[in-house]
């Protein structure tokens, strides 16, 4: 499974899809570690790509309001109604 990269780190290309193993090799961590960071993500941003020991600095940058999964009004309306109980 490939995840599209949206960031500015040197060594990765914006808009290109990379595998979990490629992201893990880039960060120097295990594939399972990278899988945990990118679980259920459609895109990978710079803040998900940290080496062991840099976690606190990276976590401070990630905010839910910064990551927009629903981009259009149609997607937002659809999400609102799909979350309702039947």
Keywords:
4 helices, 86 residues, 3 strands, elongated
Helical fraction equals 25-40%
Radius of gyration: 15 Å
Number of strands: 3
Estimate the global geometry from the Cα principal axes. elongated
Class based on secondary structure composition and strand pairing = alpha+beta
How many helical stretches? 4
What is the overall pLDDT average?
82
Low-confidence stretches: none
Order of helices and strands: EEHHEHH
Strand order of the largest sheet: 2-1-3
How much of the sequence lies in strands comes to 5-15%
Strand count, sense and barrel status of the largest sheet are: 3 strands, mixed
What is the terminal-to-terminal distance? 32 Å
Task: Describe the model.
The structure is a single chain. With 86 residues, the chain is an alpha+beta fold. Helix content is 37%, strand content 10%. The protein is built from four helices and three strands. The chain has helices at 20-27, 31-37, 55-61, 73-82, and strands at 2-5, 17-19, 43-44. Strands 2-1-3 form a three-stranded mixed sheet. Helix 1 (20-27) packs across helix 2 (31-37). It is elongated, with a radius of gyration of 15 Å. The N and C termini lie far apart (32 Å). The mean pLDDT is 82.
């Amino acid at each position: 499974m490939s995840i599209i990269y949206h960031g500015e780190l040197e060594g990765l290309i914006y808009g290109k899809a990379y595998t979990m193993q490629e992201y893990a090799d880039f960060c120097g961590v295990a594939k399972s570690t990278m899988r945990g960071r990118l679980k259920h993500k459609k895109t990978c941003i710079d803040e998900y790509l940290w080496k062991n020991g840099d976690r606190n600095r990276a976590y401070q940058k990630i905010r839910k309001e910064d990551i927009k999964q629903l981009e259009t009004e149609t997607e937002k309306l659809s999400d609102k109604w799909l979350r309702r109980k039947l």
